[in-house]
Amino acid sequence: MTQVLDRPVELKKTPASPAERTARRKALLEWVAIHSLGIAGALFFTLPFVFVFLTSLMSDSQALSRDLIPHTWEWGNYQRVFDTPGFLTWWRNTLVYAGLGTVLTVVSSVPVAYALAKFRFRGRNLSLMLVISMMMLPPQVVIIPMYLFWAKQLGLSGTLWPLIVPMAFGDAFSIFLLRQFLMTIPNEYVDAAKVDGCGDLRTLLKVVVPMAKPGIAAVALFQFFYAWNDYFGPQIYASENQNAWTLSYGLESFKGMHHTDWNLTMAATVLVMAPVILVFFFAQKAFVEGVTLTGVKG
After folding, report:
1. What span, in angstroms and rounded, lies between the C-alpha atoms of 18 and 46?
2. What are the ABC transmembrane type-1 domain coordinates in residue numbering (predicted)?
3. Tell me: the pLDDT tens digits for 85-114?
4. Torsion over CA of 168, 174, 180 and 185, rounded to 10 degrees?
């Protein structure tokens, strides 16, 4: 009786050739190089925020030292900032300026961008060139006549309305960005809606706007960031009325009052930056998608 034993077949590994070893070594070095550059870039942009945050939690004496880590975590610094007279008013004014200005900009820019992207009319290219030329016009060039109009003629000096009301008439950069995004939407969708009996306005609201949400989100974020960080406009129109100051302008005054209290200055800076960072964190997907697709078709 013959007993057959099943033995696993031993496969001898073929040694890698010099070309394969070179390819593996090259791939490993590329992986290390790419991730090292990514980590270095992340640290380059992150470390300043970490430094500001850690300094905001230091005591008054430690903030003037070379220490990088707080000995005691002074969370009460944020409460001291909020207790500063006028800080909550600056916060409210900034929310009104950024929020209302963003809504007005989007509502007024979408129809203009839709007309430039989908309508065929005489002078369309000239209109687009005028929009682009307005993007190249520095605001400092027209600030004197604009100030004379809003402050002297309408008496709105000391308020934020000279900054909010013009946003209801569109923004050149927002119109151009939306127009580029709307060009990526196939005309067949617009034609099909019109065949079904939709007018231009209904086609815009029911067909184009839902498909253009990433572009609209990108424009809204750009405008919100601009209004939230705007320093030049409030300095021109609202500097004489402290109740109309925004956070960007009020932070300069706060720094002047607490020029040696770096912990409080950094705490106020964190409170000013936090909303912008949170908004971008939750909307970054739509923002990146909108910005990316605006250059697909010209």
Report:
1. 42
2. 91-283
3. 888 999 999 999 999 999 999 999 999 999
4. -50
